[in-house]
């Protein structure tokens, strides 16, 4: 049984929904700003589930009071990396540490490479499974879905 019939990468909030419009993204940013969250824009060409540290585009935006600043940074990231995955991350620092409170993908390549499940027999008949990203078949910088 296929649990993700769309074949899209499902990381963060809203992953199973259609792509958010820029107006809907701005509403989510406003929600986070009202809660006191700081925003950052991140991108990658290898969205493996264990690849939690994506590249940061610009600096985290701690002092913003308006979603327009985050949206502007997002648009610049889209211009620079149009065929990469781009996500927005919101951080809550009210407890003295930065805790990720919101994370969602806002840009995807036209073609998503997907993953394979690699099975390996070890120590007798014990099976070990690994998820491998098809994106890593190509070197970094050549993985875009262009």
List the helices and strands and how they pair.
Blueprint (H helix, E strand, L loop, with lengths): L21 H13 L3 E7 L10 E7 L5 H14 L4 E8 L6 E9 L7 E8 L3 E8 L13
Antiparallel strand pairs: 1-2, 1-3, 3-4, 5-6
Explain what you see.
Helix 1 packs across helix 2 (67-80). The protein has helices at 22-34, 67-80; strands spanning 38-44, 55-61, 85-92, 99-107, 115-122, 126-133. The protein has 2 helices and 6 strands. The chain is globular, with a radius of gyration of 17 Å. Helices cover 18% and strands 32% of the residues. The chain is an alpha+beta fold. The mean pLDDT is 84. It has a 4-stranded antiparallel sheet with strand order 2-1-3-4, covered by helices on one side. The chain has a domain at 22-111: Ribulose bisphosphate carboxylase, small subunit (Ribulose 1,5 Bisphosphate Carboxylase/Oxygenase, 2-Layer Sandwich), CATH 3.30.190.
């Amino acid at each position: 049984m296929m649990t993700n019939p769309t074949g899209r990468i499902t990381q963060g909030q809203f992953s199973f929904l259609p792509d958010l419009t820029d107006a809907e993204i701005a509403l989510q940013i406003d929600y986070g700003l009202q809660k006191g969250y700081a925003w950052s824009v991140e991108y990658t060409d290898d969205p493996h589930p264990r690849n939690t540290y994506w590249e940061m585009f610009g600096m985290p935006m701690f002092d913003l009071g308006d979603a327009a600043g985050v949206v502007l940074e997002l648009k610049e990231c889209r211009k620079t990396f149009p065929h990469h995955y781009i996500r927005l991350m919101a951080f809550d620092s009210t407890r003295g540490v930065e805790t990720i409170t919101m994370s969602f993908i806002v840009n995807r390549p036209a073609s998503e490479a997907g993953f394979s499940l690699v099975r390996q027999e070890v120590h007798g008949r014990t099976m070990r499974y690994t998820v491998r990203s098809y994106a890593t078949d190509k070197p970094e910088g050549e993985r875009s879905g262009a």
